[in-house]
Amino acid sequence: MCRRFFRRSVASGAFAHPTASRGRSYRHGGRIDEAAASLEEALRVARRQQAKAYELRAATSLARLWGEQGRRTEARELLAPVYGWFTEGFDTADLKDAKALPAALMA
Question: The domain 2-106 belongs to what CATH superfamily?
């Protein structure tokens, strides 16, 4: 019963998981525009669901992509407010990655 409900919810769009869109971004194999669109969708879903951890992951991935495209200022402006929301958990891999990215973008 639970699995059928979950499958119907996903199929109908009633439930969206930001990791699904973020994961699609990695399967675009060099198609930067499509990867960026998937990451932007993951970011929208995470924000709509108020899922800060997923928002951080999507923002970090999108900021990294933008940084690689030379859009470093936009990348930092995207990531800073999301990272700034957190008040604990700074020893987690996601927050460490987000903290290190702006410095990497400057290099």
Answer: Tetratricopeptide repeat domain (1.25.40.10)
- Burial of 98 from C-beta contacts in 10 A (0-12 / 13-18 / 19+): buried
CB contact at 8 A, 62 and 36: yes
Distance CA(70)–CA(32), nearest Å, equals: 13
pLDDT tens, position by position, 35-80: 899 999 999 999 999 999 999 999 999 999 999 999 999 999 999 9
Domain boundaries, the chain: 2-106
Report the C-alpha gap between 42 and 54 in whole angstroms. Answer: 8
Q: Are 51 and 85 in contact (CB under 8 A)?
A: no
Q: For the chain, give me the number of helices (H) and strands (E)?
A: 6, 0
* Residues whose CB is less than 8 angstroms from the CB of residue 42 and which lie 6 or more positions away in sequence, other chains included: 18, 19, 20, 21, 22, 25, 54, 57, 58, 61
Residue 15, judged by CB atoms within 10 A of its CB (0-12, 13-18, 19+), counts as: middle
